[in-house]
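Milestone 3.1: sequence recovery, worked example.
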């Protein structure tokens, strides 16, 4: 009889696992990331909780064009359905000094003044999303800066055409994420809770 290994067995390693389709046995000594992947591909096991990469937080802004175009729900849904955990959320009519701090790295560039005018022109939805590799995951979901060049399937690729009015901001490194989150949120505005599907999402 084919026996599907229990999660605990797999965590301990060294257990003999049998592929129910091929009938072949595989010895699982170390649960490397690729071993996790192979196991989940070949066996119907309870999803293993991966502890490979540290949890990260990232700042996501749905810029004023997203609000004005009524795309807040559609864009938020992309981050939510990916499996990230929402840790903070608010609607902000961005003051000029906050916009200047947020985009300080772009000061002096030809589009800087226009960018500040854009960001301060109406409400922005500020969010903190948390999860494994959250910074890179969100950047990948967003797509390239220029909406006209962003790949289909990404938020910008599907919903934006402009370079400036590209709907969404996402931190570009964990270090910048920490700085940006502190700019937009007080620590008490970030909410800690356990999300019930965490062991399924990984
Ligand atoms: P990112 O949002 O993909 O990280 P950045 O290069 O950091 O892109 O630029 C910040 C924002 O400035 C962009 O999201 C976009 O709104 C705007 N922007 C960037 N490059 C241009 C440009 O060449 N013309 C107009 N606006 C730009
Ligand atoms: Mg950027």
């Amino acid at each position: 009889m084919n026996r599907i290994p229990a999660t605990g067995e797999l965590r301990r390693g060294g257990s003999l696992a049998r592929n129910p389709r091929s009938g072949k046995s595989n010895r699982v000594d170390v649960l490397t990331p690729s071993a996790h992947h192979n196991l989940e591909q070949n066996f119907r096991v309870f999803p293993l909780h991966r502890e490979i990469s540290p949890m990260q937080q990232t700042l996501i802004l749905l810029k004023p064009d997203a609000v004005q175009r009524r795309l807040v729900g559609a864009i938020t849904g992309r981050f939510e359905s990916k499996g990230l955990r929402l840790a903070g959320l608010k609607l902000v009519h961005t003051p000029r000094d906050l916009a200047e701090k947020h985009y300080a790295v772009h000061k002096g560039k030809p589009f800087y003044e226009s960018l500040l005018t854009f960001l301060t022109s109406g409400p922005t939805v500020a969010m903190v999303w948390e999860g494994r590799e959250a910074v890179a995951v969100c950047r990948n979901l967003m797509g390239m800066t220029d909406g006209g060049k962003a790949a289909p399937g990404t938020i910008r690729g599907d919903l934006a055409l402009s370079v400036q009015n590209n709907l969404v901001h996402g931190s570009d490194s964990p270090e910048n994420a920490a700085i940006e989150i502190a700019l937009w949120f007080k620590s008490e505005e970030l909410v800690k809770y356990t999300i019930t599907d965490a062991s399924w999402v990984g």
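The pocket of magnesium ion (ligand 2) is lined by residues 172 (CB under 6 Å). Residues 47 and 200 are 6 Å apart (CA to CA).
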